[in-house]
Write a structure and sequence with these properties.
The protein starts with 8 loop residues before the first helix and ends in a 10-residue tail after the last helix. It is α+β, with helices and mostly antiparallel strands. Strands 1, 2, 3, 4, 5, 6, 7 and 8 form an eight-stranded mixed sheet that branches. α1 (9-33) packs antiparallel against α2. It has three domains: 9-112, Butyryl-Coa Dehydrogenase, subunit A, domain 1 (Orthogonal Bundle), CATH 1.10.540.10; 115-208, Butyryl-CoA Dehydrogenase, subunit A, domain 2 (Beta Barrel); 230-383, Butyryl-CoA Dehydrogenase, subunit A, domain 3, CATH 1.20.140. Helices cover 48% and strands 13% of the residues. It is built from eleven helices and eight strands.
Length: 393
């Protein structure tokens, strides 16, 4: 069995690379059925990739975000939906390590536990004896169909105080799943809606959302661990960029694999690889992927370094973390768009993977926290001396 003590970055990346063939084999099935294939989930489990952000005392690897990035790139080259789902699991798994040690003992008693989650407070909570009672629903819950727990957000309403957003850990069997994931991209993620109706959550599994945003831990066991000394949003940003770069690299792989057999129809080019236009397109896409990697490396390096130091984050650093994430999304999409345009009409066939990469990277770019324009505007506001127009920093 892989252990936190023996599993290095190189081993985990190698495990991800070796898992890619299974992900690639089942990517079409996952799209067709709007959920990750069980064999893909199993190969990721066997590779130890769901334990990358779990606490060491429960067999987790406590991987840094650079390791998350490199692993996710390899997964994303094979199947964007599988890579995105794995990266989404990593974020609530890390967040679970901020809860009380008693809550962690319950959650991490499941080997290779998978935790889905959301940051949207689309539910309400009322105080109850020993905890809270939650009612509401959450959309876009990636990985819910294979998850054991969901990390929910709700607004706690008390008669004697202001409403307060809280975060809680809830077993999936306490929630109702609404199968409503019919989309153009990231189809395989199974990002369905979940519903809570009068769900009781014990106090031990509840934290104030504001504390989680600041990386404040209720855990004594994890208090000294560097990966838990970081605010949520930079951690989430650094955890999310790997699949996006992986999709762009997967599109490049798919394009170059088809290139030797392709001509440019209705021209004299019997080989597309002879055309100067193709050279410019490939170079342009490759450079944009390189630029995306720069932003991903800068982001993960800062998150890991500041966590190791236990250093405070400035407002500008938080805004730049969001901007780096947005830049990765924009540049990766531009690279895939160039390659997709260069691929010709035959690439719209379902058995040509570049069309899937193009739809998946487009879907990521529309995500509220990933959206390049939103993140660039936020960074610009802070650079111009204005207050940010969001709490999600």
């Amino acid at each position: 069995m892989l252990t936190a003590q023996t599993t290095t970055r190189e081993q985990l990346v190698r495990n991800a690379t070796e898992s890619a063939s299974t992900l690639r084999e089942h990517a079409d099935w996952s799209e067709e059925n709007r959920r990750i294939h069980d064999k893909s989930i199993q190969v990721l489990t066997d590779a130890g990739l769901f334990r990358m952000r779990a606490p060491a005392q429960y067999g987790g690897h406590q991987s840094d975000t650079r390791t998350l990035y490199e692993v996710a790139v390899e997964l994303g080259r094979a199947d964007g939906s599988a890579a995105w789902t794995a990266s989404v699991y990593w974020i609530p798994t890390w967040m679970a390590g901020l809860f009380t040690d008693g809550a962690q003992a319950e959650v991490f008693s499941t080997p290779d536990v998978r935790i889905c989650g959301t940051l949207s407070p689309t539910a309400t909570a009322a105080p109850a004896d020993g905890g809270i009672v939650v009612d509401g629903r959450w959309g876009f819950i990636t990985g819910a169909l294979h998850a054991h727990w969901q990390l929910i957000v709700a607004v706690l309403i008390r008669a004697d105080s202001e409403p307060m957003p809280v975060m809680a850990l809830v077993p999936m069997e306490d929630l109702t799943v609404i199968d409503d994931w019919y989309t153009a991209g990231l189809k395989g993620t199974g990002s369905v809606t979940t519903v809570a109706e009068g769900v009781f959550v014990p106090e031990e599994r509840v934290l104030p959302l504001g504390a989680v945003f600041q990386g404040q831990s209720a855990s004594q066991a994890n208090a000294g661990q560097s990966i838990y000394r970081a605010p949520l949003l930079p951690v989430a940003a650094a955890s999310s960029v790997g699949p996006v770069v992986g999709m762009a690299k997967g599109a490049m792989d798919a394009f170059l694999q088809r290139l030797p057999e392709r001509k440019i129809t209705y021209t004299s080019y019997e080989r597309q690889s002879d055309a100067a236009l193709t050279h410019l397109q490939v170079a342009d896409a490759a450079i944009r992927i390189d630029e995306a990697e720069f932003h991903a490396h800068r982001l993960t390096a800062q998150v890991d370094a500041k966590a190791a130091e236990g250093a405070e984050w400035t407002l500008l650093e938080r805004a730049r973390a969001r901007a780096d994430m947005g830049a990765v999304c924009r540049l990766a999409k531009e690279a895939v768009d160039i390659l997709n345009t260069a691929s010709g009409a035959s690439s719209i066939r379902r058995d040509v993977p570049i069309q899937r990469f193009q739809r998946d990277v487009q879907a990521v770019n529309l995500h509220a926290l990933m959206h390049p324009n939103t993140n660039a505007e936020l960074y610009g506001r802070v650079l111009c001396g204005l207050e940010p127009n969001t709490l999600y920093l």
